[in-house]
Design brief:
Distance between the termini: 16 Å
Number of domains: 1
Helix content: 25-40%
Order of helices and strands: EEHHEEEHEHEE
Largest sheet: 8 strands, mixed
CATH class: Alpha Beta
Shape: globular
Radius of gyration: 15 Å
CATH architecture: 3-Layer(aba) Sandwich
Oligomer: single chain
Number of strands: 8
């Protein structure tokens, strides 16, 4: 059994997912500094610089975070990551995804998630998603990809308070 290693690049018709680097902070913070981006997330203050710094630090520490780039413009449109690989269960999580509001409704979230899912499910048995209990948009979006709710439990995000999350799963 090989450990799960996030790929250095994922590419689809409209998006390119590149490894997140420290120098991407300002570009992504410009997208994340809109309070409406976070209004349904459990930690709604991520639009504030200090909170986003913690969020970004957690992304870098995860070892599996991506800057999501719109291929046609070369601009960052959001971020997502792989995290919490559990080799004994052959499960990895995908999450912490956000997109700037200008990129909502363009099909970018499902494209990014499908790229990440396709890669992950070639290497593990299933993928899980932690979605805040109040985050209806993300619950609907992940359901459209075929994820099934399997649990509810408190989750502590990097440097943030514990919040109730719904756990969704997609298997091979």
């Amino acid at each position: 059994m090989h450990p799960f290693v996030p790929p250095p690049l994922l590419e689809g018709p409209n998006l390119r997912l590149e490894p997140l680097l420290p120098e991407h902070f300002e570009e992504l913070y410009a997208l994340a500094s809109d309070p409406l981006v976070w209004e349904q997330h459990p930690n709604r203050n991520r639009w504030q610089r200090e909170a986003f710094e913690r969020f970004f630090e957690g992304a870098l520490l995860s070892g599996g975070a991506y800057r999501i780039v719109e291929k046609s413009s070369g601009k960052a449109v959001g971020s997502s990551r792989y995290y919490d690989y559990r080799p004994d269960e052959q499960v990895v999580n995908i999450g912490y995804t956000f997109f700037g509001r200008a990129y909502w409704g363009k099909g970018y979230n499902p494209e990014a998630k499908q790229l990440m899912l396709t890669y992950a499910l070639a290497h593990v048995e299933s993928v899980e998603f932690h979605i805040g209990a109040v985050n209806k948009r993300s619950q609907i979006a992940i359901g459209r990809l075929g994820a099934i709710k399997i649990d509810e439990r408190p989750v502590t995000y990097h440097g943030e308070q514990e919040t109730l999350n719904f756990i969704y799963r997609i298997g091979k």
